[in-house]
Write a structure and sequence with these properties.
By secondary structure, the protein is mostly beta strands. It has one domain: Immunoglobulin-like, CATH 2.60.40. About 0% of the residues lie in helices and about 50% in strands. The chain has no helices and 13 strands. The strands form four sheets. Strands 2, 3, 6, 10 and 13 form a five-stranded mixed β-sheet that branches. A four-stranded antiparallel β-sheet has the order 5-4-8-9, with no helix packed on it. Strand 11 and strand 12 form a beta hairpin. This is DUF6795 domain-containing protein. InterPro entries: DUF6795. It comes from Trinickia dinghuensis.
C-alpha cells in the first residue's frame, strides 16, 4: 500500500442471515467501528437482508493523510449486530490492527454465515454468531 492510500478500518463484509438454516428476510444489521486514531465517532452503517437472507457492507475507509508515515499500532474495534423480531444478536466483534483490506481473516474476504439460533462464540479471532465461510 502507498503512503497516502486510504485506510481500511473495516473491510467489505458480505453474508447471509439464517434461522434454523432458512434465509431470514428483513433482518436489520448495524455495523460500527471505533478507531483509536480518531476522536470523532464514526457513523454506523446499516443493511437489511433480502429475501435470500443476504446482506453487504461497503468497506469503511478514511483518508490516510500522514498516518501511514507515522509508526503506530492502529486499533479498530469492529462490531456488527443483527436485529430481528425484537431480539438483538451479537454477530461479529473483532479487533483489527492493520489499515490494509481483508486483514480480519488473514487476507481472505469477509464472507459470513450468521445463524440466529447459534450461541455467540469465538470463531478464530472474532466473536459472535457469525462464522466465516471457508473457500
Amino acid at each position: 500500500m502507498g503512503a497516502f492510500d486510504r485506510l481500511v478500518l473495516f473491510s467489505e463484509v458480505r453474508g447471509t442471515v439464517l434461522k434454523h438454516g432458512a434465509p431470514v428476510a428483513g433482518a436489520e444489521l448495524i455495523q460500527k467501528v471505533v478507531w483509536s486514531d480518531n476522536e470523532n465517532e464514526i457513523a454506523p452503517q446499516r443493511a437489511v437482508t433480502d429475501e435470500k437472507g443476504a446482506f453487504r457492507f461497503q468497506p469503511i475507509t478514511r483518508a490516510a493523510w500522514f498516518l501511514r508515515l507515522i509508526p503506530a499500532q492502529p486499533i479498530m474495534l469492529q462490531k456488527i449486530v443483527i436485529r430481528y423480531e425484537g431480539v438483538e444478536y451479537t454477530a461479529w466483534r473483532h479487533s483489527k490492527n492493520s489499515y490494509d483490506a481483508d486483514t480480519e481473516l488473514d487476507g481472505r474476504p469477509i464472507r459470513l454465515v450468521c445463524e440466529l439460533t447459534s450461541q455467540p462464540d469465538y470463531d478464530g479471532k472474532h466473536y459472535g454468531i457469525c462464522r466465516a465461510e471457508v473457500d
